[in-house]
Amino acid sequence: MALSPARAGGDLAALSGTVAGDLFVFGDIRDLLREGSRLASGEKADRLLLGLAAAGIAVTAATYVSVGTAAPARAGLSLVKDARKAGRLGAGLAGWAGRSAIDVVDGPMLRGAMADASVMRPAASLAALRGAVRADKVAALIRAAKDAGRIGEKAGTRGALETLRLADEPADLARAARLAEGKGTQTRALLKLFGRGALVLAAGAFDLAVWLFGAAFALLGLLASIKATTERLTEALLRRAKLRRARRAAVRQARSGLAAAPVIG
After folding, report:
1. Among 47, 66, 75, 170, whose Cα sits 20 to 30 Å from the Cα of 84?
2. Cα three-residue angle 215-217-219, rounded to 5 degrees
3. Which helix (H) or strand (E) element contains residue 204?
C-alpha cells in the first residue's frame, strides 16, 4: 500500500509522539488505563494495545536500569503500537500479538492499580501498574518488539513499518531483522520489490535471489538489445534493397527512352 507524502509525514509525526510518550511511560500508562477501564466496565477493549502497553511498562524500567540496552525493545513496542493505531499492522502479526496479549494483565490487580494511577504521577503509577503485569507472559511480545526495534535501527522507521505490514508471525520479524542487519536502508526497497518473499528467504538465499533477479534483468536487457540491433539491421538491408531496385528501374527507363528516340541523320 503506497502512502502519499502527506500521509507518510503524518504517520511519522504520530510515531515521534508515540515514541516520546512511551519513553517517559506516559503513553503506556495512558493506553493501559484507557483499555483497562474499558475492560473493567465490560466495554470492548483493544487487548493488543493493552498487552503492548503492559509490555512497555515492563521493558521501560529495564531500559533505564540497563542504561539503554533494552532500547530496541522499547522502540519496537512503540513501532508496533503506532502501526496498530494507524491500521498498518499485518493481520497475521496482529492476530498473533493479540493472542499473546490476552493473559499479560492480571485483571483484579489492574483494577486495584487503576484506582491510584495517573499519568500526572508516572513514577507512582508505574510502580502500581507493574504489579498487574505478568512478567512471564510478556516475553514473546518483547522478543518480537526487539526485532522490530532492530529493523528500525538499521532500515529506518519506514522500513520497520513496511515489515510490520507484511509480517505474519514473529519469525518474519526475526528474518527481517537479519535482512536489515545486512542490507541496511536498502531493506524497505527490497520489501517493496519482493513483498513477503523477502521475509521467507534466508540471507544467503536472498542474496542468491537478488543475483538471479539481476542476471534475469541483464538477460532481458541483452535480448532487448539484440532485438533492437536486428530490427535496425533489417531496416538498413530493406532500404538498400529498395534503393537498388529504384536504381535498376531508373536505368531501365533511361535505356527505353534512348531506344525510342528517333535517329536524326
Report:
1. 66
2. 70
3. helix 203-260
C-alpha span between 112 and 128 (Å, rounded) = 9
Cα 202 from Cα 178, distance rounded (Å): 9
Which residues neighbour 126 within 8 Å (Cβ) at sequence distance 6 or greater?
25, 29, 57, 60, 61
d(CA 36, CA 107): 8
**CB burial string 151-171: b at 16+ within 10 A, e below:** bbbbbbbbbbbbbbbbbbbbe
In the predicted structure, residue 208 carries a pLDDT above the cut 50? yes
Number of H helices and number of E strands within the chain?
Answer: 12, 0
Q: Per-residue pLDDT tens for 59-78? A: 776 554 454 556 778 888 88
Q: Give the separation between CA 227 and CA 51, rounded to whole angstroms.
A: 60
Q: How far is CA 140 from CA 70, 133, 167, in A?
A: 15, 14, 15
The residue to which cell 492480571 is assigned:
106
Task: Please state, in angstroms and rounded to a whole number, the distance separating the CA atoms of residues 36 and 52.
Answer: 12
Amino acid type, 148: A
